[in-house]
């Protein structure tokens, strides 16, 4: 937990959050640089792997820069994400480009920038890339994203590796794929990939994935397509409330056992690197009681943090103000939708309007999923490093958004 209290005052690293609320308008996101570095090093020290940070989790330029300084590559899913990576100076040969729906424009952009690999997700896409690369007189570096037909047993809405899901290429098409690659003159096969979902806490799921990926690479090798590189996706699960963080040591042992050091291995973690490093600070605007439900209405809402409304998940909420008396609250945002609720029946010390709450573990899929719904402005983002903080994105100006 990055938030800690000294003499009842909330701190992240050496920065006093109560003081921050006096100068920075809520709601705002804060990230702890040291926590991000810790999480990165935990992967690096436990697993022999390249790390391609999935920047969809948090694509603030300062965060991408930090990842770069740690030696990470990036996993991107749009021209915008590739441009963000180039903007902070990520070497193109450390950029992977994914996505189930890439336009011609997207593919051409990636080809012209000569990135490490484009992971293709359909036979049609493979043919298109071959044609585009041929017309540009270059060779396309590609990976094949397989769909291993494994249920990640995470939230249904973030499971991507079942046969019926839209992602990847079903393994029963592997022979067709091999033939196509061999007949495609402008394709340079760099490896195979998969990603079966996010917030996976059970390492046994990865075991099943690894076994299927090994089998896929062996089938391809039998057809004279040598596979050197396995990109095994993201998905490492973290603790929000009671979940157990994924055990990386078990993942490492599984890799050794199943792949026997025969392949270059890459992972694309997003959430693991940033989720627990962020909190969202919000102010209680109003307290009210309707039909015996005690509401705290906050200035952050589903436009600031969408996850609870979209997936029905809960983030821990910690008030700045303590009180010996406690009661159950429903904590809700200001948006005109009944789903705009962060938590129901959440026990907190008694609160009053004007108090502040920290919504925890919001460093991943927080700001990046925020919107201008109800014509509200996107919040500030801050990065804390020891006793200092930097504003890494200014709050959007309402007078700007109303012109569009
Ligand atoms: N690689 C690919 C191809 C992906 O689609 C994703 C995430 C990742 C890597 C990174 O996965 P991670 O390590 O973060 O689990 N908005 C949802 C999560 C959606 C994940 C989408 N893909 C949430 O808030 O829970």
Structure description:
It is a single chain. This protein is of the alpha/beta class. The chain is built from 12 helices and 21 strands. Strands 4, 14, 15, 16, 17, 18, 19, 20 and 21 form a 9-stranded mixed beta sheet that branches. Strands 5-6-7-8-9-11-12-13 form an 8-stranded parallel β-barrel, surrounded by 4 helices. The protein has a 3-stranded antiparallel beta sheet with strand order 1-2-3. The longest helix is centred in the middle third of the chain and has 20 residues, at 203-222. Residues 54, 56-57, 75, 98, 158, 195, 198-199, 233-236, 268-272, 307, 365 line the site of ligand LLP. Ligand LLP binds at residues 54, 56-57, 75, 98, 158, 195, 198-199, 233-236, 268-272, 307, 365.
> For the terminal residues, how far apart are their CA atoms?
39 Å
Tell how many strands the DSSP assignment holds. 21
Mean pLDDT: 97
Tell me, briefly, the overall form.
elongated
* CA radius of gyration: 23 Å
| Largest sheet features | 9 strands, mixed
Bound molecules: ligand LLP
Percent range for β-strand residues: 25-35%
User: Could you estimate the helical fraction of the residues in percent?
Assistant: 25-40%
**How many DSSP H or I helices?**
12
Strands, helices and their partners?
Blueprint (H helix, E strand, L loop, with lengths): L2 E4 L2 E4 L2 E2 H7 L4 E5 H14 L3 E5 L6 H10 L2 E4 L2 H9 L7 E3 L6 H9 L4 E4 L2 H13 L4 E8 L21 E2 L3 H10 L3 E7 L9 H20 L6 E3 L16 H12 L4 E4 L3 H4 L3 E13 L2 E6 L8 H5 L5 E3 L6 E7 L8 E9 L6 E5 L19 E6 L2 E6 L4 H4 L3
Helix pairs in contact: 5-6, 8-9
